[in-house]
Amino acid sequence: xxxxxxxxxxxxxxxxxxxxxxxxxxxxxxxxxxxxxxxxxxxxxxxxxxxxxxxxxxxxxxxxxxxxxxxxxxxxxxxxxxxxxxxxxxxxxxxxxxxxxxxxxxxxxxxxxxxxxxxxxxxxxxxxxxxxxxxxxxxxxxxxxxxxxxxxxxxxxxxxxxxxxxxxxxxxxxxxxxxxxxxxxxxxxxxxxxxxxxxxxxxxxxxxxxxxxxxxxxxxxxxxxxxxxxxxxxxxxxxxxxxxxxxxxxxxxxxxxxxxxxxxxxxxxxxxxxxxxxxxxxxxxxxxxxxxxxxxxxxxxxxxxxxxxxxxxxxxxxxxxxxxxxxxxxxxxxxxxxxxxxxxxxxxxxxxxxxxxxxxxxxxxxxxxxxxxxxxxxxxxxxxxxxxxxxxxx
Length: 394
Prior knowledge:
Layout: H1 8-27, H2 44-54, H3 61-76, H4 82-98, H5 101-126, H6 132-212, H7 216-247, H8 262-273, E1 278-284, H9 295-315, E2 319-328, E3 331-339, H10 354-365, E4 369-375, E5 378-386
């Protein structure tokens, strides 16, 4: 297996260590000047080996430390070089900093135990307090580099963990921001659709009738309805703009539609659907003297009825559209039944299906129940909404 190229700092350490050792050798500054078991030049071999091992201090720190231990022991059998000992301490430090987590945990304990063992053995052998110096030297060469490396590694790991936590926090914040933006977009899309769709549908239906029926009375009636819905649609748009400004703090809160306004909503639907043979009826069975419902529930129920009436005007066959409200067991039930079948007469307006999606989303936000579909001769929209205080916090 081919080893990666040494880091430039490791090359610099190796070069400085080798040159320092050569300079000490040339000047005759030896660690063990009186030891001549082998020729003096032999001390250059452990020096060269230690310098070469410095190139591997990051890539294979454990193997470099083992070979460095052999080199420093061999160095003590020669006249010795202080540069070799210093490079061994660096190899010990690198083994803790760059080695495996297991090595990083074991080496401080191993070198600490070795320091104690050497100190005790020296005292037992020489029986002199000066033997403690050997223990101190062992600690300086082995234990202190290992402890320093452990401290540096712990600091780096803590910094990396903090960086990862910061990145994760940033990503979660960005995800929350995107979700908030998406939720706000969906909310404004529902409001825009529910506010304007029924007015534009009425305008489309009556303008189609005015164009297809060559009658002055029909055209006059259609223009009246078109004008009324245009004015109301403009008012709704202004209310929506006021809502947006209120969100940014430029204006005070804007009034939210409530179920008390269903009478006006049905009156408007009667004008719009008169040409299609539609009648509209409201059956409100909620008990008298009841407490006011939370504003989100009132708004959702109002918008569901509004969208259902709009769909009835666009698609229902002649007949009666019935709106029913029931309040029982802390739950508000909204039901709209429209005559269902193939519509062959009367002008129609195209639909996109966004209304059903918006109604379903409104109910889901309140943890309610929603269903829409044919039920015998009628198309039924039914929503069950929680009417307690928790719903007001949704």
